[in-house]
Amino acid sequence: MTIKVINKSKHALPKYQTALSAGMDLYANISEPITLKSLERRLISTGLLISLPEGYEAQVRPRSGLALKNGITVLNTPGTIDADYRGEIGVILVNLSAEDFTINDGDRIAQMVIAKYETATWEEVNTLEETERGEGGFGSSGVAKK
């Protein structure tokens, strides 16, 4: 798949780090370091604008290393970039640790996964077909019934 991109950043285009990676790293494109205090959130620029084909979205997800080592994650995980959006990709980062965290220009701040999706239409009905699970939710599957 080919995706049209405008790169207004000072950095290389996102790329897959290994042959079987699902996500491409997104880089901070900022003029000066940004320090996130504990529980603070900020929109971080990437300098990228994309045009996705119809039926596809880009999902912005946390980087596992930042999450584990520093408590930094993407607040609206996964963030969705719709096929008709033409603005700059921004990443909403939040610091869930007790320590300040500084983001520098060029830091890998998130990953982006391109995903196919279906457009649904609703059919209103009065009943739904029965299933073994029924209305069980929120941890109910795999639990013996009493």
Percent helix? under 10%
Low-confidence stretches: none
- Biggest β-sheet description: 4 strands, antiparallel
Q: Structural class, from helix and strand content?
A: mainly beta
What is the chain-wise order of helices and strands? Answer: EEEEEEHEEEEE
Please identify which CATH superfamily we are dealing with.
Deoxyuridine triphosphatase (dUTPase)
Strand content: 25-35%
CATH-assigned fold name: Deoxyuridine 5'-Triphosphate Nucleotidohydrolase, Chain A
Question: From the alpha-carbon coordinates, what is the Rg to the nearest angstrom?
Answer: 19 Å
* CATH architecture descriptor text: Distorted Sandwich
Overall spatial form: globular
- Write down the CATH class: Mainly Beta
The total domain count is 1
Alpha plus pi helix count: 1
Mean pLDDT: 95
Q: In angstroms, what separates the terminal alpha carbons?
A: 51 Å
Number of strands: 11
Order of neighbouring strands in the sheet with most strands: 2-11-6-8
Description:
The structure is a single chain. Helix content is 5%, strand content 34%. It has 146 residues and is mainly β. It has a single domain (4-116), classed as Deoxyuridine triphosphatase (dUTPase) (Deoxyuridine 5'-Triphosphate Nucleotidohydrolase, Chain A), CATH 2.70.40. The strands form four sheets. A four-stranded antiparallel beta sheet has the order 2-11-6-8, with no helix packed on it. The protein is globular and about 55 Å long. The model has no long low-confidence stretch (mean pLDDT 95).
